[in-house]
Amino acid sequence: MESVEFKAERYIKALSRGTLLFPEDFSRFGSSEAIRKALQRLEEKGVIRRVAQGIYVRPIISTYIGEVLPSAEEVAEAITKRDRARTLPTGSYALNALGLSTQVPMNIVLLTDGSPRKIKVGKRTIKFKKTTPKNLLAKGAISRLVIQALKEIGRNRLTADEEAKIMELLKKENPQDLLHDISLAPVWIQVIMKKAL
Q1: In which domain, by residue range, is 180 found?
Q2: Where is 121: in which H helix or E strand?
Q3: Cα separations (Å) of 105 from 67, 78, 92, 93, 102?
Q4: What per-residue confidence (pLDDT) applies to 111?
Q5: Among 77, 92, 165, 181, which residue's CB has the most CB atoms within a 10 Å radius?
Q6: Phi then psi dihedrals of residue 164, to 5 deg
Q7: pLDDT, position 43
Q8: 121/93 same-domain check
Q9: Could you tell me the CA-to-CA distances from 51 to 40, 124, 125, 180 in Å, in that order?
Q10: pTM greater than the 0.85 cutoff
């Protein structure tokens, strides 16, 4: 009989480095208690690193800087995929994603239809905030971020420079998606976004 630890280690080593792992990825190897112990032992052996509560990785090794751990953004994406939840970046995270701010937010806030939670990844925090389905109806990859970014900037606080950048981005959006998303935005944001049509 192969141990849970042995099976888990073989499974991990077959994956490419940098793949994020959750305890449920190992559920076919044993009970949740046996998996928890196996992952703990594999972490002690240095096979995997714990990135956050219940999230592990076999780090990528760089010849220049050694271990490369996944970013908070990658962790957020992996959780979203695992939970099959819809998420939407908000606030300074949306501004940064659009290139309207160079500041990397310490706290990533994502609106979600999944379960609300807070996860610490190194010095950064990912917060999944429960929202109404209406807030997640936006279809366009760019326009959905623009709505959140404009909410963060605030009414009557948009600079000409920021507006020009937003128009440039919105012109790359699928026109059908853009029209759909404009209808979901607050009226003052609709006025700004309609200029891109």
Answers
A1: 138-197
A2: strand 117-121
A3: 23, 19, 6, 6, 9
A4: 96
A5: 181
A6: -60, -40
A7: 98
A8: yes
A9: 13, 11, 12, 38
A10: yes
